[in-house]
Amino acid sequence: MPEVENAVEAEPSTAAPLFGDRIDVARQYTADLARRGEELGLIGPLEVPRLWSRHILNCAIVAPLLRPGRTGDVGSGAGLPGLVLAIARPDVHLVLIEPMERRVDWLISEAADLGLDNVTVIRARSEETRLDVPLDQLTARAVSSLSKLIPTTAPLVRSGGELLFMKGSRVQDEIDAAAKIIRKARLSNVEVLVLGEGVVPEVTRVFRATVD
Ligand SMILES: C[S@@+](CC[C@H](N)C(=O)[O-])C[C@H]1O[C@@H](n2cnc3c(N)ncnc32)[C@H](O)[C@@H]1O
Predict the structure, then answer these.
(1) Which residues, other chains included, contact 209 with Cβ-Cβ below 8 Å and sequence gap of 6+?
(2) CATH number of the domain residue 185 falls in
Protein backbone atom coordinates (compact mmCIF):
# COMPACT_ATOMS: atom_id res chain seq x y z
CA MET A 1 0.00 0.00 0.00
CA PRO A 2 1.42 3.45 -0.85
CA GLU A 3 1.75 5.82 2.06
CA VAL A 4 -1.21 8.20 2.25
CA GLU A 5 0.08 11.76 2.33
CA ASN A 6 -1.83 14.50 4.10
CA ALA A 7 -4.16 11.99 5.73
CA VAL A 8 -6.44 13.54 8.32
CA GLU A 9 -5.09 13.03 11.81
CA ALA A 10 -6.98 10.55 13.96
CA GLU A 11 -9.03 12.26 16.64
CA PRO A 12 -6.89 12.55 19.81
CA SER A 13 -8.44 11.05 22.97
CA THR A 14 -8.32 14.53 24.54
CA ALA A 15 -10.85 15.94 22.02
CA ALA A 16 -14.07 14.45 23.39
CA PRO A 17 -13.53 15.66 26.99
CA LEU A 18 -12.80 19.19 25.71
CA PHE A 19 -15.96 19.43 23.59
CA GLY A 20 -18.32 17.38 25.76
CA ASP A 21 -21.70 16.96 24.09
CA ARG A 22 -20.54 19.25 21.23
CA ILE A 23 -17.97 16.73 20.00
CA ASP A 24 -20.02 15.66 16.97
CA VAL A 25 -20.19 19.27 15.75
CA ALA A 26 -16.42 19.60 16.26
CA ARG A 27 -15.93 16.38 14.26
CA GLN A 28 -18.01 17.74 11.40
CA TYR A 29 -16.12 21.05 11.37
CA THR A 30 -12.76 19.26 11.38
CA ALA A 31 -13.85 16.96 8.56
CA ASP A 32 -15.18 19.90 6.49
CA LEU A 33 -11.94 21.83 6.99
CA ALA A 34 -9.85 18.79 6.08
CA ARG A 35 -11.94 18.24 2.93
CA ARG A 36 -12.19 21.82 1.66
CA GLY A 37 -9.71 23.95 3.62
CA GLU A 38 -6.77 23.59 1.30
CA GLU A 39 -8.75 24.11 -1.91
CA LEU A 40 -10.33 27.27 -0.46
CA GLY A 41 -6.95 28.60 0.68
CA LEU A 42 -7.96 28.45 4.34
CA ILE A 43 -5.16 26.17 5.52
CA GLY A 44 -1.89 24.99 4.06
CA PRO A 45 -1.44 21.36 2.91
CA LEU A 46 0.83 20.61 5.86
CA GLU A 47 -1.94 21.45 8.31
CA VAL A 48 -4.35 18.64 7.37
CA PRO A 49 -2.38 15.89 9.15
CA ARG A 50 -2.28 17.97 12.33
CA LEU A 51 -5.65 19.66 12.24
CA TRP A 52 -6.85 18.31 15.57
CA SER A 53 -3.70 18.66 17.63
CA ARG A 54 -2.30 21.97 16.31
CA HIS A 55 -5.47 23.81 15.47
CA ILE A 56 -8.80 22.50 16.77
CA LEU A 57 -7.65 21.49 20.27
CA ASN A 58 -5.29 24.45 20.54
CA CYS A 59 -8.34 26.70 20.08
CA ALA A 60 -10.79 24.63 22.15
CA ILE A 61 -8.51 24.96 25.15
CA VAL A 62 -9.33 28.68 25.26
CA ALA A 63 -13.10 28.04 25.51
CA PRO A 64 -13.27 27.95 29.34
CA LEU A 65 -11.89 31.53 29.43
CA LEU A 66 -15.05 32.86 27.75
CA ARG A 67 -17.84 34.39 29.74
CA PRO A 68 -21.48 34.20 28.67
CA GLY A 69 -22.06 37.25 26.44
CA ARG A 70 -20.53 38.45 23.16
CA THR A 71 -17.00 37.59 22.13
CA GLY A 72 -15.37 38.94 18.98
CA ASP A 73 -12.73 37.05 16.99
CA VAL A 74 -10.59 39.23 14.77
CA GLY A 75 -9.03 37.61 11.68
CA SER A 76 -11.00 34.38 12.00
CA GLY A 77 -9.76 32.98 8.67
CA ALA A 78 -10.85 29.33 8.60
CA GLY A 79 -12.71 29.83 11.88
CA LEU A 80 -9.75 29.50 14.26
CA PRO A 81 -10.55 30.11 17.00
CA GLY A 82 -13.96 31.73 16.24
CA LEU A 83 -15.92 28.73 14.95
CA VAL A 84 -14.24 26.33 17.38
CA LEU A 85 -15.27 28.57 20.28
CA ALA A 86 -18.82 28.88 18.92
CA ILE A 87 -18.99 25.07 18.83
CA ALA A 88 -17.57 24.58 22.31
CA ARG A 89 -19.53 27.44 23.93
CA PRO A 90 -23.12 27.66 22.63
CA ASP A 91 -23.86 30.04 25.52
CA VAL A 92 -21.53 32.68 23.99
CA HIS A 93 -22.33 34.71 20.86
CA LEU A 94 -19.28 34.88 18.57
CA VAL A 95 -18.79 37.89 16.29
CA LEU A 96 -16.27 36.91 13.62
CA ILE A 97 -14.45 39.87 12.02
CA GLU A 98 -12.63 38.98 8.82
CA PRO A 99 -11.89 41.16 5.75
CA MET A 100 -11.29 38.52 3.04
CA GLU A 101 -14.40 37.76 0.98
CA ARG A 102 -13.61 34.09 0.35
CA ARG A 103 -13.00 33.48 4.05
CA VAL A 104 -16.16 35.37 5.00
CA ASP A 105 -18.17 33.19 2.57
CA TRP A 106 -16.71 30.08 4.17
CA LEU A 107 -17.41 31.28 7.72
CA ILE A 108 -21.05 32.08 6.88
CA SER A 109 -21.75 28.82 5.05
CA GLU A 110 -19.88 26.67 7.56
CA ALA A 111 -21.67 28.24 10.54
CA ALA A 112 -24.98 27.48 8.78
CA ASP A 113 -23.96 23.89 7.91
CA LEU A 114 -22.94 23.28 11.51
CA GLY A 115 -26.24 24.69 12.79
CA LEU A 116 -24.48 27.40 14.82
CA ASP A 117 -27.03 30.09 15.63
CA ASN A 118 -24.57 31.87 17.95
CA VAL A 119 -22.37 33.28 15.16
CA THR A 120 -22.39 36.65 13.36
CA VAL A 121 -19.86 37.33 10.60
CA ILE A 122 -18.71 40.88 9.79
CA ARG A 123 -16.64 41.53 6.68
CA ALA A 124 -14.19 44.21 7.79
CA ARG A 125 -10.75 44.90 9.13
CA SER A 126 -10.71 45.42 12.88
CA GLU A 127 -9.70 49.09 12.51
CA GLU A 128 -12.73 49.86 10.34
CA THR A 129 -15.22 47.82 12.39
CA ARG A 130 -18.03 49.76 14.04
CA LEU A 131 -20.25 47.98 16.55
CA ASP A 132 -23.51 49.23 18.06
CA VAL A 133 -22.76 47.38 21.28
CA PRO A 134 -19.17 46.81 22.44
CA LEU A 135 -17.94 43.26 22.97
CA ASP A 136 -17.40 41.53 26.32
CA GLN A 137 -14.26 39.77 25.15
CA LEU A 138 -12.20 39.56 21.98
CA THR A 139 -9.87 36.84 20.68
CA ALA A 140 -7.31 36.73 17.87
CA ARG A 141 -4.87 34.07 16.69
CA ALA A 142 -2.02 34.53 14.23
CA VAL A 143 -3.19 37.96 13.05
CA SER A 144 -0.46 40.46 13.98
CA SER A 145 1.87 41.62 16.75
CA LEU A 146 0.45 42.98 20.01
CA SER A 147 1.67 46.46 19.02
CA LYS A 148 -0.63 46.39 15.99
CA LEU A 149 -3.47 44.34 17.44
CA ILE A 150 -4.11 46.27 20.64
CA PRO A 151 -4.84 49.74 19.16
CA THR A 152 -7.25 48.32 16.57
CA THR A 153 -9.11 45.91 18.84
CA ALA A 154 -9.28 47.43 22.34
CA PRO A 155 -11.82 50.09 21.16
CA LEU A 156 -14.20 47.24 20.21
CA VAL A 157 -14.37 45.95 23.81
CA ARG A 158 -16.43 47.40 26.65
CA SER A 159 -14.90 48.77 29.81
CA GLY A 160 -14.18 45.77 32.05
CA GLY A 161 -14.04 43.46 29.02
CA GLU A 162 -11.02 41.39 28.01
CA LEU A 163 -8.58 40.85 25.19
CA LEU A 164 -7.53 37.19 24.76
CA PHE A 165 -4.83 36.80 22.14
CA MET A 166 -3.34 33.40 21.32
CA LYS A 167 0.39 33.89 20.99
CA GLY A 168 3.63 32.01 20.41
CA SER A 169 6.52 31.36 22.74
CA ARG A 170 7.92 34.91 22.26
CA VAL A 171 4.86 36.57 23.76
CA GLN A 172 6.87 38.22 26.55
CA ASP A 173 9.07 39.97 23.93
CA GLU A 174 5.89 41.23 22.26
CA ILE A 175 4.57 42.51 25.59
CA ASP A 176 7.85 44.32 26.27
CA ALA A 177 7.80 45.89 22.79
CA ALA A 178 4.19 47.00 23.28
CA ALA A 179 4.65 48.50 26.78
CA LYS A 180 3.76 52.05 25.71
CA ILE A 181 0.81 50.89 23.63
CA ILE A 182 -0.51 48.79 26.53
CA ARG A 183 -0.40 51.90 28.77
CA LYS A 184 -2.00 54.12 26.12
CA ALA A 185 -4.83 51.63 25.58
CA ARG A 186 -5.33 51.62 29.40
CA LEU A 187 -5.07 47.83 29.71
CA SER A 188 -4.74 46.33 33.17
CA ASN A 189 -4.30 42.85 34.66
CA VAL A 190 -1.92 41.95 31.82
CA GLU A 191 -0.87 38.30 32.08
CA VAL A 192 0.15 35.30 30.02
CA LEU A 193 -1.77 32.07 30.57
CA VAL A 194 -0.17 28.79 29.55
CA LEU A 195 -2.87 26.29 28.68
CA GLY A 196 -3.05 22.71 27.49
CA GLU A 197 -0.05 21.08 29.12
CA GLY A 198 -0.44 17.33 28.58
CA VAL A 199 -3.38 17.87 26.23
CA VAL A 200 -1.78 19.33 23.09
CA PRO A 201 1.75 18.81 21.71
CA GLU A 202 2.52 22.52 22.07
CA VAL A 203 0.98 24.51 24.90
CA THR A 204 -1.26 27.45 24.04
CA ARG A 205 -0.16 30.85 25.34
CA VAL A 206 -2.86 33.45 25.83
CA PHE A 207 -2.17 37.14 26.38
CA ARG A 208 -5.03 38.28 28.62
CA ALA A 209 -5.73 41.88 29.60
CA THR A 210 -8.65 43.90 30.92
CA VAL A 211 -9.83 46.98 29.01
CA ASP A 212 -10.43 49.80 31.51
C1 LIG B 1 -2.67 34.04 9.28
S2 LIG B 1 -4.40 34.20 9.19
C3 LIG B 1 -4.91 33.43 10.69
C4 LIG B 1 -6.32 32.96 10.61
C5 LIG B 1 -6.82 32.25 11.88
N6 LIG B 1 -6.98 33.19 12.97
C7 LIG B 1 -5.91 31.12 12.27
O8 LIG B 1 -5.36 31.13 13.37
O9 LIG B 1 -5.76 30.18 11.47
C10 LIG B 1 -4.69 35.94 9.52
C11 LIG B 1 -6.12 36.35 9.26
O12 LIG B 1 -6.31 37.66 9.77
C13 LIG B 1 -7.00 38.43 8.81
N14 LIG B 1 -6.62 39.83 9.06
C15 LIG B 1 -5.44 40.43 8.79
N16 LIG B 1 -5.45 41.72 9.19
C17 LIG B 1 -6.68 41.93 9.76
C18 LIG B 1 -7.31 43.07 10.36
N19 LIG B 1 -6.69 44.25 10.44
N20 LIG B 1 -8.56 42.93 10.82
C21 LIG B 1 -9.20 41.73 10.73
N22 LIG B 1 -8.65 40.62 10.18
C23 LIG B 1 -7.40 40.72 9.69
C24 LIG B 1 -6.56 37.87 7.46
O25 LIG B 1 -7.50 38.12 6.44
C26 LIG B 1 -6.47 36.37 7.79
O27 LIG B 1 -7.68 35.69 7.58
Answers:
(1) 162, 163, 182, 187, 188, 189, 190, 191
(2) 3.40.50.150
